[in-house]
Design brief:
alpha+beta, 2 domains, two-stranded antiparallel sheet, globular, DUF397
Length: about 110
Amino acid sequence: MGWRCYRLPGTEGSRITVRVRADIRIARWKEVMMERFDNGVPANSISDAQWLKSSISSAVGNCVEVAALPQGDVAVRNSRYPDGPALIYTRDELKAFVAGAKSGEFDHVTA
């Protein structure tokens, strides 16, 4: 068992020190912590993403798709451009948007 320093993506100059053990929980923690996604990341670069779309979406692919990310955020992409950019939101941000959509706040955009 020893100590190692890791630099997390997007944290220039910052490091995190962890005690490294041959333990599956530590390995899984490192995997989750090291895989961080920023807005605009190519959607196809999000490994193991399970993209979901609404069952009432059109069959020609005009859909918004979402995927849960390991650290708890949610990725959103346009199904017409599956390799295009994905926008990353927290669950609270997405909940607020869905609540607004359900209450009709964005109806004027699609009218």
